[in-house]
């Protein structure tokens, strides 16, 4: 079993739809959580950090459930420009090593 | 400001050759990471530097892989006796991480290595 698991998708949604991605992690000692976005043949870029209390950035909402070792990302009112691969990332606080999921691919269609 | 830069952007080599990949982190970032990414997969951790020292090299697949960061800034990933299975995009990231703080990593554009 992988340390960080994501549904690979692809998720194909129409513009304006709401879509949710899930991620589970196996290391209960993990302390820092992130969502990165990666466009085709580009480097990953930070989308948002994920905090225990949940956090929102515009159309994006991230949630963390430590008890279930589960992270989610909700995208509301999807735009064509949201089409990308979304990577879930987990990092322990006592080391820099980060573990990435294999990503979930989103395609938003007109 | 300038982001993380990596050179070369593409490298094609023959099986058995030696290659060096360079990473120039964001100025002032003490932490530097190397990952490799194969098609359809997320980045796979290789090694992490805090300053000049390798704080965690547990991701290096074998002793053909080695990385240095002699002055705590630029880093070089070295691969000896390359194999076809080494073909991947090699990503470098840097952060201002220190113990106890949230680690936001900024990635370079990567070096696409192809071993023929």
What does this structure look like?
The complex is a heterodimer of chains A (110) and B (116). Helices cover 0% and strands 54% of the residues of chain A. With 110 residues, chain A is mainly beta. In chain A, a hairpin with a 5-residue loop joins strand 4 and strand 5. Chain A is globular. Chain B has strands at residues 5-7, 10-13, 19-24, 31-37, 44-50, 53-56, 65-68, 75-79, 88-95, 106-107, 111-115. In chain B, the strands form two sheets. In chain B, strands 2, 4, 5, 6, 9, 10 and 11 form a seven-stranded mixed β-sheet that branches. A four-stranded antiparallel β-sheet of chain B has the order 1-3-8-7, with no helix packed on it. The relative contact order of chain B is 0.33. The model of chain B has no long low-confidence stretch (mean pLDDT 93). Chain A binds chain B through residues 4, 8, 32, 34, 42-46, 49, 87, 91, 93-103, and chain B through 31, 33, 35, 40-45, 48, 50, 55-56, 58-59, 91, 95, 97, 99-100, 102-110.
